[in-house]
Amino acid sequence: MRPYAPILLLLLAGTRTQGTETLLHVSGISQAPMRALLSADAGRPPKEIEVADGHLAPPTALTAGAEASLTLLSDDGVPLLSPLRFIVPAEGGRHVLIVSPGVPTGARISLVPVDFKSQPVGSVVFLNLSDNVVRCWLGDRHVEVRPGRSARHPLEGTARRKANHRIEYLDAAGKWTHDSSTTLILAADQRFIFTLGPGRAEDGPLLRHNVTDHAPEQNARPATPVSPPTPTPPPDPPAR
Fold it and tell me: Per the confidence metrics, is the pTM higher than 0.70?
């Protein structure tokens, strides 16, 4: 059984919608928490954040539809890679940006909607970072997920529960093939995003990681915006 580890997020493009805010959580998998610069909206300074490892971080407010980038930093503040560029989802709402290992850039980002309509408390979402179409089973029900996509499993519930978790992949012959299985204990009143991959299932069992929203209501509250709005100057005093 492979232990579940941390996550990193999804790329979505969208039409620019001025004046609307999108709340963006940034989380990661497969590494310790690390520093990063989150930049959005031309001409405004970036904000240094910590990429949370395996849990949903509080969101930051960004302009919907803005061009943005995430730059991973070393402990000394030196950029580790070229900026990871993405478009802030234009429809607004809340999304998580998951940073995960990627080839050839060394890191990959994925965007997954995490508003309470897309992912209610107690639900499980699977993010497929592999090259295969996969079936993700919890108990006797499954959800099918194509490469680079995410999908919510039909099993939901706010109570603590145990579930057999099994993965199948579609092989080159068009046959569903067993990849791996384990037992999950899903805590009460939490939300879960499980990732599969990267890589080809044919090369060995797919790596499995998770990002957990331990405090859904608290984590829904936005952190400080990337750039505070410019204050409006007071009106000129009346002439005497």
Answer: yes
